[in-house]
Amino acid sequence: MRVEIWSDIACPWCYVGKARFEKGLAAFAHRDDVEVVHRSFELDPGRAKGDTALVVDMLAEKYGRTREEARSMEEGVASNARSEGLGYRIEGRDHGSTFDIHRLLHLAKARGRQDELLNLAYRANFAEERSVFDPETLVALAVEAGLDEAEARAVLADADAYADDVRADEREAAELGATGVPFFVLDRRYGVSGGQPAEVFTQALEQAWQGRVITEIGQSGGDAAACGPDGCEVPHAGPHAGAHA
Amino acid sequence: MRVEIWSDIACPWCYVGKARFEKGLAAFAHRDDVEVVHRSFELDPGRAKGDTALVVDMLAEKYGRTREEARSMEEGVASNARSEGLGYRIEGRDHGSTFDIHRLLHLAKARGRQDELLNLAYRANFAEERSVFDPETLVALAVEAGLDEAEARAVLADADAYADDVRADEREAAELGATGVPFFVLDRRYGVSGGQPAEVFTQALEQAWQGRVITEIGQSGGDAAACGPDGCEVPHAGPHAGAHA
């Protein structure tokens, strides 16, 4: 079974939701048969590269609140994060374009290091005094995740590298009806929206596991050009009909 | 959309079916949004490592035929392969355990080189005078596919490396009802059995594309702990209710 998780590094509920999903997955009997894939989603896709602002300032401006009010809005998520054992800083955290981070996460996917980089990027952004909007920090995170430094630098230097993969993920999210993140899709059949309690994820995994039914398309049975433990079949329409191994 | 293809390197219809699937995929409008994953399946899982035999001899013995009759059985598949532009040798090809090849294909998957290695392994087995049952040939194929030689050797030397991944694929094939290969599964929803004509694959891709519907599980809407372009929501059940970005 496969779970795809659309999320953004700048999304606090994605950070919290990932931990809750993993707790729900750990309680699922078939957890060893579950593959998890990260998908890109930008909450602020129009934001220019390099245009960063403090999260608290951004929130205050966006909602017309004081910085104190913005800080208390952040406290709501922070307490949820802390109850999951996650660090969460409010002051000094930047908001900015996450496009380059998503491109780097696609490189990491190609190299089998996606979950490592994703965890490091979340931690850097939410729990540490490191800005994921600084290219040198991204390179350092990539190396910590096990990626080749030169390759990571090359991807960051080439704005086209993995850009289509990021956009394809975002297009798919829209096609699947996602309007926000985190968005969890199980075997392209069931969806869970938001960083819900761990038990919801366990239930969803169980439901998706039970719901695995494949609808056959095309010819099937002895006529198909297929091989099994007892040998191979040549389709009757083919030039040489009959059993074959 | 994702297509998983269960197959075995020793399976002639998998070799032919891969070419037909790729032709069908090339004719599908959303081909750039299709991810293809190889899954392991052994036609002869009980076969011991190192126990090889000429395919023609194995066929003659298995079906109680003469070598000449076995050769003409092979010709049936060969003519199908050739009509797809694929080389196909009958004489000198070995039959044996494909477990190590599947383990190596999982390493290649982790390094983003699976399709490269799969194509090279099929070609070596069916079209070239190279035995995929010889460890040195496997190392050479791995290097040609872009893998690190030392890493490939380490995987081949450690019988446990990626063994669970091979078995997990095989278990999943059984759970999804596959009794033979190639077995194509589209978004875990639709299945195509056998190396069918390219048009069948195009139709299956179109049907699966239309059939993408996600069933929502759990709470949804404004109550979910999710972020969208307009900000983040704190669930009402949470310690700090209200809008948040």
Automatic annotation (TrEMBL), chains A, B:
GO terms for molecular function: oxidoreductase activity. Residues 3-205 form the DSBA-like thioredoxin domain. Gene3D superfamilies: Glutaredoxin. It holds the Pfam family DSBA. InterPro entries: DSBA-like_thioredoxin_dom, Thioredoxin-like_sf. It comes from Streptomyces liangshanensis. This is DsbA family oxidoreductase.
